[in-house]
Each structure stands twice: as C-alpha cells, then as structure tokens.
Amino acid sequence: MISKRIREEIEEASWIRRMFEEGIRMRRSRGEDKVFDFSLGNPDVEPPNEVKEALVRALLDPRRGLHRYMPNNGFEESREEIASYLSEHYGLSFSKDHVFMTSGCAGGMNIILKTLLDRGDEVIIPSPYFMEYRYYVESHGGVPRLVDTDAHFQLSVEAIEEAISDRTKAIIINSPNNPTGAVYHETLLRSLAELLQRERRKGRFIYIVSDEAYRKFVYEGLTLPNLFRIYDLLFAVYTHSKDLALPGERIGYIAISPYLEHLETIVSGLMFSSRALGFVNAPALFQRTVPRFQRNSIDVADYEQKRDMFYQGLIAAGLEVVKPQGAFYMFPRSPCQDELEFVQALKEEEGILVVPGRGFGKKGYVRIAYCVPKEKIERAIDGFKRVTARFLKKG
Fold first, then answer.
1. Parallel, antiparallel, or unpaired: how do β-strands 366-369 and 329-330 relate?
2. The whole model's pTM is what?
3. Is the pLDDT of residue 278 over 90?
4. What is the mean pLDDT of residues 171-194?
C-alpha cells in the first residue's frame, strides 16, 4: 500500500485531475458537444509550425552523440543562446552559467527548493496558489507558510512581513498568476524587495523563486515588472509549455540572477539536485530546438479575446469576477458559500467542468481555464447564467 501521507495528499490535491478525468468520462456518456471542460490549463492550440519544422531538423541531424548525456545544466550552446535573449530582454549581463535547462517549471522549482532548503526552513506562498507548490516545499523538508492576497489577488506585503520568521528561506511568486490571472503591481514588488532588504540587514537572506510560466500571457499592452532589476536573490523559472504550446514535452529553464554571489556553488547544488531527484537533464531534443524561439509565442491576442468573452459573460450571469490581466484563468466568487455545490450543479445540470477554489487554497471560488475553443465558451455562457441565477435566487 502507498504511504498514509501520500493517500491524504492525493485526496486533498487531486481536484484539477479529478475534474479533468470526469470530463473524459462525461464526454463518453453525453457526447463531446454536451461537455464544456474548463478544468485543465492545457493549451488548445498547436505549436507554431516553425517549432515543428525545427524539431524535425533536430531529429534528423546526422551528427553522432546528439542524444547522449550532456552536462546536467544543459547543452552549452543552448544556454548561451538563452542567455543572449535574457541579456537583451532584461538589460542585464547573463552568461551561459546563469541558465540551467530543466524539465519544465515543475522540474526547475523542485531543483531550486532542494538546493536551498534545510529541514524546517519556511517558504512563503501567497494564496490562492498553484497547489503543487506546497508539495514541492514539503518534499524537500520545508514548511509552507501561506499568506492571503488582497481582494484583487494582489500581494499583501504586510501579510508577508508578518509571516517572516528566522526560518524563512524563500518566497514563491507567480505572476501572471494561476489560478487568478492577476499580474502583481510593480509598486508591490518593489515594496516586497525593500522588506527583504531590511530582513537581510537582520541577517535573514530570503530568496524569491519566481514561477514565470505565463510570462508572455499579458493583456492590454501591459508590461511585466523587471524582477531582476528589483531584487537580487532571485531565481526565475520558465517553461515553454504555454508560449510554444509544448506542455507534454517538459522543457524549460532556470534563469539565475546575475547579481547572485557564489554562482559556481549554486550551479553545483542545482546539478546535484537534478541528479538526486532523477531529472538528470532536460530532454536533449528540445534543448536543441527551443532556444532559438525565445522571442516567439502562440497568438496571445486570441487568449485575450477569450478572456473578454468569458469575463463579459460571467459578469452578465451575475458572478463577481476580478478581471484577469494575464495567464488564461479566471477565478470568480461562487454564488453560494460552499463552492462545491456550485461546481456540482454546473457539472450535473449543464455539463460544465470547473475546479473548486479549495484546490488552490481559497474556498468560495472556482477556477476556470479558458484555453479552449471560442465556441465552447460561447455555448457554455448560458449554462453559467442558468445555474448562477438559481443560486442567486435562493440567496
């Protein structure tokens, strides 16, 4: 039998996959056109043709040794190309040693946390949050400290300050955010950096681990703050799951701040952690493919249109929604106190699948992933209206 701890965590953390698998079952019984699955952040578009063509060329490359082991941090030429892009993008001097190729963001975050944490060290996580962060921290002996964001899902620097202790080692930042779509304001990030600098003067060195999976998914011409210029003890973790629509290929990288001291020791720690966790190295084929596509992305404007359609429809339905500024998620408040009732009613009455907010540490809300065809959104809105109206009428 599996361990008691894993059994408990499976029950607590399986909401996204549970709803996704329920969608598969429902499509078999009801038919594809009667199920509206907004459960999983699984891009509905295909990778750009240029990426596919580059993959074919890489696969057919006749040179020997291209599929063998490489340094644990990745092919040197791949890291050099990404470092060049980072230098241009952030206006700082990144070298190949500031880039560590990983198996997606999840692989990168686990490698970082294993490298940083001693048993009992604390990691602050703003909530609502991607639930697996907690398990990443606990897997490496850390203690998650959850802190609430404000009513608009923006960082509460005051709450973070109250959560800091002598054991605080890191803060996880995710902007644009999953599940809310919030983009953290630069003024708040600067206030957070000032707080962490004050803590450093007390002898507390606190790292920021920035999950930037949705970095290119920002709307209305918004520009993300340059975290590398705001704070120095920084690891930014990136993936091509979303921008190149490659979630199943598990390819990404860690960008290490050029301001971080003891770079050689840090990289050695990341390399050891990569081996110890069994990642060993990122997939060779994709390491040779994605570096040249750092400036590319699928059509983000298409996602902005989907956001607008859904947002307007949910507001018309009477739901309370903070308009997302990025990513491809919406996090409306449930029209009843127990969001599980709302989730169940949507599923049973309308064939609509969403994820309860408790799966992200925030009861009373639901997460909607709108990375689906537009016609699915259009056809689902009336179902949201009917179910919401019934709950609002009940009061």
1. antiparallel
2. 0.95
3. yes
4. 98
Spatial distance between the Cα atoms of 32 and 339, rounded to a whole number of angstroms:
25
Rg (CA), the chain: 21
Structure-block tokens of residue 315? 């507001």
Report the first-to-last Cα separation within the chain, whole angstroms.
45
How many C-beta neighbours within 10 Å does residue 278 have? 8
Segments of the chain assigned to CATH 3.90.1150.10: 4-47+299-394
Instruction: State the pLDDT at residue 30.
Output: 81
CA 211 from centre of chain: 6
Q: Backbone dihedral region of 206: left (phi > 0), alpha (psi from -120 to 50 degrees) or beta?
A: beta
Does residue 390 sit in helix, strand or coil?
A: helix
pLDDT in tens, 43-77: 889 999 999 999 999 999 999 999 999 999 999 99
- Give the CATH fold of the 4-47+299-394 domain: Aspartate Aminotransferase, domain 1 (3.90.1150)
| Pair 129, 362: CB distance under 8 Å | no
Return the residue matching tokens 């850390």: 142
Residue ranges matching CATH 3.40.640.10 in the chain = 69-293
DSSP 320: B
The Cα–Cα gap between 67 and 357 comes to 42
Q: Is 297 exposed, middle or buried (0-12, 13-18, 19+ CB in 10 A)?
A: middle
pLDDT tens by residue, 297-327: 999 999 999 999 999 999 999 999 999 999 9
Q: Which residues of 146-155 are buried (b: 16+ CB within 10 A; e: fewer)?
A: bbebeeebbb
Q: Which two tokens stand for residue 43?
A: 């891009």
Which residues, at least 6 apart from 189, have a Cβ–Cβ distance to it below 8 Å?
155, 173, 225, 227, 230, 231
CA 329 → CA 178, 214, 352, distances in Å? 7, 11, 15
Q: What gap in Å lies between CA 7 and CA 298, rounded to an integer?
A: 38
What CATH number belongs to 69-293? 3.40.640.10
Quick one: pLDDT at residue 12? 64
Residue 260 CB burial class (10 angstroms; 0-12, 13-18, ≥19): middle
Sheet of strand 234-239: strand arrangement: 99-102, 252-256, 234-239, 207-211, 168-174, 122-127, 143-148
Please, which pLDDT band fits residue 11 given cuts at 50, 70 and 90?
low
